[in-house]
Amino acid sequence: MSILKYLSARRSQLCAARNYPNVLGFSSFHTTPNSSIELHTQDEEVVIALGSNVGDRLHNFKEALKLMRKSGIHITRHASLYETAPAYVTDQPRFLNSAVRAVTKLGPHELLSALKRIEKDMGRTDGIRYGPRPIDLDILFYGKFKVRSDILTVPHERIWERPFVMAPLMDLLGTAVDSDTVASWHSFSGHSGGLTALWEKLGGESLIGEEGMYRVMPVANGLLDWSGRTLVMGILNLTPDSFSDGGNFQSVKSAVSQARLMISEGADIIDIGAQSTRPMASRISVEEELGRLIPVLEAVMAIPEVEGKLISVDTFYSEVALEAVRKGAHLINDVSAGKLDANMFKVMAELDVPYVAMHMRGDPCTMQDIENLKYDNVCKDISSELYSRVREAEMSGIPAWRIIMDPGIGFSKKTEDNLEVLMGIPDIREEISKRSLAISHAPILIGPSRKRFLGEICSHPSAVERDPATIASVTAGVLCGANIVRVHNVKDNLDAVKLCDAILKQKSSPMKFKQ
């Protein structure tokens, strides 16, 4: 399976060490399961770790999250997804691990009972300690409280020694402390620099890809590890009016031929679009878009060359997304990040495929209006606006481990803004990391291919003359941290991507000195 390269090179430590006081208004108590502390009426923020290594691990996660919601546990944030080697008892299958932040009115022992009931309902039995299990749910934090009883210890006593727990826990935080509760969690670590310093002491980001632990995205019945290389997404436009190749691939035969060509040239993903999103494009109906899309999608899915490749559908309609996934599409690419269809997030939460959320102001008809081109700070504003869309998606049930971000080159941006985005990918990640490390870890897709700003810079009014400029922009973007590049010319851009990956790999290798 293709591997996505995580290229967010740190130019500086994301979070400077902070001094967290030992006491920040939290309460510590020793209690029994039936003590009065269970008489809760206010919401408490909690962190719950998830693990699974038996059966369909992803299905187990989804089922556990659904049962948690039904039990009065309102999930607000998801960590990234990790595949990890088993600890303690090593002769067993690999685990999936993650964690969630949630709010609940359940008292700590009520919460424990609810989680144990979910584990039992999902088939967990009393077996070997640390042995195989379909689902494992542990309370890591409960509000600002420390809990000690015969059956419950919070914070979980072995958090600090387990990278497979610490990695998802850190994902649920931002580099900025956003509440007294989070400050308390940092204080519980017992380290003057809080959880951040403790994570760095364990090895931090250097552990990802090492020690048997990989950050992954579920797609096409597999797990995509983006630590290996940059993915190339080939563009297949079925529209009569796209700015570059409109009308070239309207027949099923010509579209399939183009898909075959791009696959033969090395495309990892084919992105099929049946609605033009060029500036001032007229919007077509759901029915017309499906009429263009489905025959081609079915034909492309049927060719043997597509084995091992990913098929994406470019749409902002939830009904099109739903039908496309039913026909076999592996991911959905939405230029509006849910703004042009109020049902998109709800539908995507049920579809269990990756979702590309792109930054755009307005719609294709209004995105280049003067008001939509005003930025105080391009990368900071894009980060804020894109993060707000992703947070809404997450609150609707799309976990962070299924999110891909696109800063929207060419959408609601002037030429100089597009250049800022290309060079500012590390800044976008860093800005988002202040609020959520999980979202900042998400793959970033860029799509500069043949766009007008390249023509303006290089004096090429014709889109098909902009391939050399596209290669240059792709090179800049990948070297700055892009993980997926969406292009018309797969062959030449793949060469550029391979060179960039080699440069980045060389740069990250330990220095070798002659004796």
TrEMBL record:
Write out the entry's keywords from A to Z. ATP-binding, Folate biosynthesis, Kinase, Magnesium, Metal-binding, Multifunctional enzyme, Nucleotide-binding, Transferase
User: GO:BP terms for this protein?
Assistant: folic acid biosynthetic process; tetrahydrofolate biosynthetic process
Q: Which cofactor does it need?
A: Mg(2+)
Keyword set includes Phosphoprotein? no
Protein name (record): Pterin-binding domain-containing protein
Q: Which reaction does it catalyse?
A: 6-hydroxymethyl-7,8-dihydropterin + ATP = (7,8-dihydropterin-6-yl)methyl diphosphate + AMP + H(+); (7,8-dihydropterin-6-yl)methyl diphosphate + 4-aminobenzoate = 7,8-dihydropteroate + diphosphate
**Alphabetized GO MF terms:** 2-amino-4-hydroxy-6-hydroxymethyldihydropteridine diphosphokinase activity; ATP binding; dihydropteroate synthase activity; kinase activity; metal ion binding
Gene3D superfamilies per the record?
7,8-Dihydro-6-hydroxymethylpterin-pyrophosphokinase HPPK, Dihydropteroate synthase-like
Q: Mind telling me which GO cellular component terms the entry cites?
A: cytoplasm
To which protein family does this belong? In the N-terminal section; belongs to the HPPK family. In the C-terminal section; belongs to the DHPS family.
Its pathway is:
Cofactor biosynthesis; tetrahydrofolate biosynthesis; 7,8-dihydrofolate from 2-amino-4-hydroxy-6-hydroxymethyl-7,8-dihydropteridine diphosphate and 4-aminobenzoate: step 1/2; Cofactor biosynthesis; tetrahydrofolate biosynthesis; 2-amino-4-hydroxy-6-hydroxymethyl-7,8-dihydropteridine diphosphate from 7,8-dihydroneopterin triphosphate: step 4/4
Domain Pterin-binding stretches: 230-498
